[in-house]
Design goal:
With about 280 residues, this protein is an alpha+beta fold. About 25% of the residues lie in helices and about 30% in strands. A five-stranded mixed β-barrel has the order 5-6-7-11-10. A four-stranded antiparallel β-sheet has the order 1-2-3-4, covered by helices on one side. The termini are far apart.
């Protein structure tokens, strides 16, 4: 009986369809395939991590340089000025401008300019808004520039305020005094710290360089003027100012007073800041 059952089962099994081996037996994965799969996953993860780090560094740099928001913005840096140093309008420019105002100043006998900061101006002087000015004082025959009715008395002086960087006229005023009150007390920031003043003679002027000898000294100085040098001539109670050194040429036979920067330049000259010919006895 048991033999009949075993034969029956064997017969039924033989009747079943035979499938290919790959359809029912799982194919074993090679170790190389597994390794490459792992490597691929690890490589992609590493690449994503590297890109994230690079992107974060780039954003931090941009924030540090432009917005100052990263932690690098608090690191010490070289000191820089908050306001860039810009070129200034020259003394000759503002003096030449004022001397050309013939309608307001028909005759200018004396005119001087000083480079003044807003902190230098006393309350007695009404300064315009700004930080750095050329202030030009004028003495001579002066007309009113914005007068509705004629002034009650003649005007003999004027004061002009220029923006030291742009050269624009910011304000002006006229008065009956022969010299503007308060101008002489203003400092002149165009002068070098520790400038020297000496009295002597001009020996020659060659190629724009003044050869000067102080009274009682055998030493000679070579002084080089520039666009900010001030030129004045005096003759007793008279006197005046000029814009260029050539206008002082006929007066070299008198003693002169010079103010210069004591710092010696590379060519051995000193910067000439003021040159006054004759003696001022006013």
């Amino acid at each position: 009986m048991s033999d009949d059952i075993e034969l029956t089962i064997q017969r039924d099994l033989n009747r079943l369809p035979v499938l290919p081996e790959e359809r029912w037996v799982p194919r074993a994965r090679s170790s190389r395939t597994s390794f490459m799969s792992v490597v691929t996953r690890v490589g992609v993860s590493t690449l994503v991590l590297m890109l994230a780090i690079a992107l974060g560094s780039a954003l931090a740099y941009v924030g540090d340089q432009v917005l100052g928001t990263s932690s690098a913005s608090v690191r010490p840096r070289p000191a820089t000025t908050s306001v860039p140093t810009l070129p200034l309008t020259s003394r000759q420019f503002v003096l030449g401008y004022v001397r050309g105002l013939s309608a307001i100043i028909p005759r200018a006998q004396r005119f001087e300019a000083k480079l003044v900061s807003s902190t230098d101006v006393p309350p007695t002087l009404s300064a315009p808004r700004g930080r750095l000015f050329w202030v030009v004082a004028v003495s001579g025959d002066v007309n009113c520039d914005f007068c509705i009715i004629p002034p009650p008395q003649p005007l003999h002086s004027a004061l002009f305020w220029f923006d030291a960087r742009t050269g624009a006229v910011l304000a002006s005023g006229q008065g009956p005094a022969y010299w503007p009150d308060g101008f002489d007390a203003l400092p002149d920031r165009s002068l070098a710290p520790g400038s020297w003043t000496q009295i002597g003679s001009v020996l020659s002027v060659n190629a724009g360089v003044v050869e000067f000898q102080e009274v009682g000294s055998a030493d000679r100085l070579r002084l080089r003027p520039d666009e900010n040098t001030a030129y004045t001539w005096s003759a007793g109670v008279a006197g005046g100012n000029v814009v260029t050194m050539n206008e002082l040429g006929p007066r070299w036979d008198t003693l002169v007073r010079v103010t210069f920067d004591p710092l010696t330049q590379a060519d051995g000259t000193h910067r000439l800041e003021t040159l006054i010919t004759g003696w001022n006895t006013r």
